[in-house]
Write a structure and sequence with these properties.
The chain is mainly β. The protein is globular. Strand 3 and strand 4 form a beta hairpin.
């Protein structure tokens, strides 16, 4: 299947400070809520898988897109 999927993501306050690069959530950070992300693809970098996602909040990430390491 080719296409995007929607996922529910539990986040900490750090999530909204993401601006570029590969986002890594601190497992010990207090989770403050849930949001929906649209996962549109994946890539590998240095033998690590990361997900490419879009988020509709204005001024988020790189033109409302981000990358998150698969854990």
């Amino acid at each position: 299947y080719n296409g995007s999927i929607l996922v529910i993501y539990q986040y900490s306050n750090k999530f909204f400070r993401y601006t570029s690069g590969i986002y890594e959530e601190d497992k010990e950070a207090e989770k403050v809520g849930y949001t929906v992300l649209k996962v549109i693809g994946w890539r590998t970098l240095n033998n690590k898988l990361y997900w490419i996602f879009s988020y509709t909040k204005n001024d988020f990430g790189i033109n409302n897109f981000g990358m998150m390491e698969d854990k």
